[in-house]
Amino acid sequence: MSDTGSTAIDPDDVVAADAAAREFVARHRDDDIRPTESGDEIGRALVVVVDDRAAHGEEQSLLGPLVGELLAEAGFHVDATVAVSGDEVEIRNALNTAVIGGVDLVVSVGGVGVGARDVTPEATEPLLDRRLRGIEEAVRSSGLAAGSADGGLSRGLAGISGQTLVVNLSNSRAAVRDGMATVAPLAKHVIEEISEF
To answer: Under DSSP, is residue 122 helix (H, G, I), strand (E, B) or coil?
Structure first.
């Protein structure tokens, strides 16, 4: 999608934004990502694993439980983990069901590369009321800094749909671990802000 008539982004601004995002995450990582006391949860979350084999029961993805564990450590109650195939309609339906269900955060894993079945961003974008490009770029920047090529090259989106934060992550263990370390402290702040409306 191109923005006609928009001005070019200054490369220095991109570098400054990346540095600010990394500094923010580093500053809040220790404070915000630690197991919480019972009853001290940030909110409810749902995990959507985009994987054809897992969706058809042929192979269980270990990434869903990993994301769930990382979310729980960050203070979220994980309602469920669902697996869908790399089909735009199935992905959109799973994300929309999570939003309608009132979860605070939905994290999808997979389908953000450049393959023919990588359609998670296309399924996600129509659901978003507001894109949060800062989170998208923070995930990519931290992925590259951590040496996770798929995390750094991800086309994944982040944004708000209704009262729900939606984030797309790549589907490798390294990208999931790094992406969750980046997203969790930012998600806490976004959820606090949107819950004030």
So the answer is: helix
